[in-house]
Amino acid sequence: MTEINNLPTECAKFFTELEENNNRMWFEKNKPRFQTKILNPLRQLVGQVGEKLHSLSPEIIADPRINKSIFRINRDLRFSRDKSPYKTHQGVIFWNGNMVKLESPGFYLHLDTDYIYIGGGYHLFPKKELEIFRRSLENPIHNDRLYSIIQELQSSGYSIDGKHYKRYPKGFDSNIANQEYLLFKGLWAYRRISEFDKICNPDFVENIFNIFQDFYPLYEFLCEVIYHQSYE
């Protein structure tokens, strides 16, 4: 457990050095450290947090393999001007197993050089799912439920993101309640933590899960209004 609790601190140290030495020679030399101090504890975290998430919903995927719940550290350089071979952060995702990983509501943990980012919701609606989400807002029951969920999250100190568009989409009533959500391309709640000692303690795994649990009503809402209408 000690290694898991120290994970954000170890990530901060490693990625700060990687920012200054972003090359294959340095990484290969420090790869054993990456495996021991970051990757192995990360796999344990995925397993332990995933087990707790399954108590909320067994359909949530928590797979401690690279390119599953754990994002690979290698950058995709094909279309990037920046040819630095490695990311200087570490990401973890848990998603609805009935849907495609990056096209699903889910939960996200991001470990960076100086902060921890914890999010939950839908990062980017695919075209079909965006249409379904917008149509759900025309249903007063869904609309009121979403409004209550967002209000509860904001009153608990979480931020809401996803607003992108400046014009209301054609074919939708811009006068409906909470019409602002028609301008969203995704919808998620998040908390960014810069003071590691607020979360890095013997209850680190529980702390992560508790935040995810706060996000669960939003996750559940999005799964219900989008997945069940998309695939039934």
Model regions low in confidence, pLDDT < 50 over at least 5 residues: none
How many E strands?
A: 6
CATH topology: BirA Bifunctional Protein, domain 2
Report how far apart the termini are.
42 Å
Largest sheet: 6 strands, antiparallel
Rg measurement, Å: 19 Å
Strand order of the largest sheet: 1-2-3-4-6-5
| Annotated CATH homologous superfamily | Protein of unknown function DUF1054
How would you explain this protein's 3D organization?
- Helix content is 44%, strand content 16%.
- With 232 residues, the chain is of the alpha+beta class.
- It has one domain: Protein of unknown function DUF1054 (BirA Bifunctional Protein, domain 2), CATH 3.30.930.20.
- It has a 6-stranded antiparallel β-sheet with strand order 1-2-3-4-6-5.
- Helix 2 packs antiparallel against helix 3, helix 4 packs across helix 6 and helix 5 runs antiparallel to helix 6.
- It is globular and about 60 Å long.
- The protein starts with a helix and ends with a helix.
SSE blueprint and pairings:
Blueprint: H1 2-5, H2 7-20, H3 24-54, E1 60-61, E2 90-96, E3 106-111, E4 116-122, H4 127-136, H5 140-155, E5 159-163, E6 184-193, H6 204-231
Helix pairs in contact: 2-3, 3-6, 4-6, 5-6
